[in-house]
Amino acid sequence: MQKRVLTVIIVLIGISLGITFLPMAWLAIGYADNMWLNNSVTDGLIGAIIFYIISLAIVGPITAGVKKLEKQLNEFSLTYIVFGVVGAILGLTLGLIGTSPLYRVPVPFINSGLPILIMALLGYLGFRMGTTRIDELKKFFGGRNKKAETNEGEVLERKADDHFHKYKILDTSVIIDGRIYDIAKSGFLEGVLMIPNFVLYELQYIADSGDSLKRVRGRRGLDILNSLQKEDGISVEMYDGDFEDISEVDSKLIKLAKLLDGVIVTNDYNLNKVSEFQNVAVLNINALANAVKPVVIPGETMNVLLVKAGTERQQGVAYLDDGTMVVVEDGQHYMNEHIEVVVTSALQTAAGRMIFAKPAHSSRNIKDDSPEKKLDYDQTKETK
């Protein structure tokens, strides 16, 4: 459609130029008296044919250039464009006023080329001034807020940037996990939580599964969604669209995140890696949980309850209140007992944190080396 309109415009320009300039051409070559050639209809037709042939070569590049320009303009906000145009107009106006004396100077370049260069430079500077100082211009033309004047010194102006309301697209796994509700309720997850329909359908499919474990997990996810929607301080929206050409839910989530410039919220390790590879922002709940776990350092002591044997010989395993595993060397001798241990090292993995420790008494130096003291120590260890 654009090509046809552009072709029509070029042909109309050809008709106008043919009627205007072809009579002079006929006069120059000696055909001015030929009424079959030198008339408005013939001149317009010849001009139309010539410019139609020209349009076949230039319409394609012009259309591509217009589309590229439209794409670039769409990336800018309306405020940016308006202030830029106003700044450019002011710059051109100043250039026109300032260069008017130059037209009377009897020097070829100064009275023709120099004014154009000055006006172009001032127009560009005006555009830059208008686009780089939008906030200052808003305050200058908009005036001061009466409420701000009244509470001056008490309330500071702030504005949320464009990313404040960025969509947080929830994955099926993070909904079933349930921790997303507590995180959103605490206010650490800003913006709008988006639930795509294909994620809701997957939850419903899991809730209707014949496997009792899957059925419980699916119903838990639906309960979490209802809780999120009923919470006053949490903004939840549904996405009704679908991607029929994509079968996997994870791929649909990545496609939707690219379409809306959103952030995927998940605790799926594989989805996290695939999203990062495709330059899609991801918030991993497991990564958040690991980040807020208490940090321990070698040499720190703690009191733990050994609950089971470890995988290696004579190891015992205990757990902190947050679920962190503590592997205690020689811990099998103290099963189901509270003992004081000394941290030797800590290992951070994608699955969580592991702490390695040993009983506190094994790291203490025994200053009294008498046989009686050594015998009492050995008997106490054997009794335990």
TrEMBL record:
Database matches in SMART domains: PINc (SM00670)
Superkingdom assignment: Bacteria
Gene3D superfamilies in the cross-refs: 5'-nuclease
GO molecular function, one term: hydrolase activity
Cofactor(s) required for function per UniProt: Mg(2+)
UniProtKB keywords: Hydrolase, Magnesium, Membrane, Nuclease, Transmembrane, Transmembrane helix
Database matches in InterPro entries: Nucleic_acid_metab_PIN/TRAM, PIN-like_dom_sf, PIN_dom, TRAM_dom
Occurrences of domain TRAM (ranges): 295-356
Biased composition (Basic and acidic residues): 365-384
PANTHER family in the record: AAA FAMILY ATPASE (PTHR11603), MEMBRANE PROTEIN (PTHR11603:SF147)
The protein's name in its UniProt record: Pili retraction protein pilT
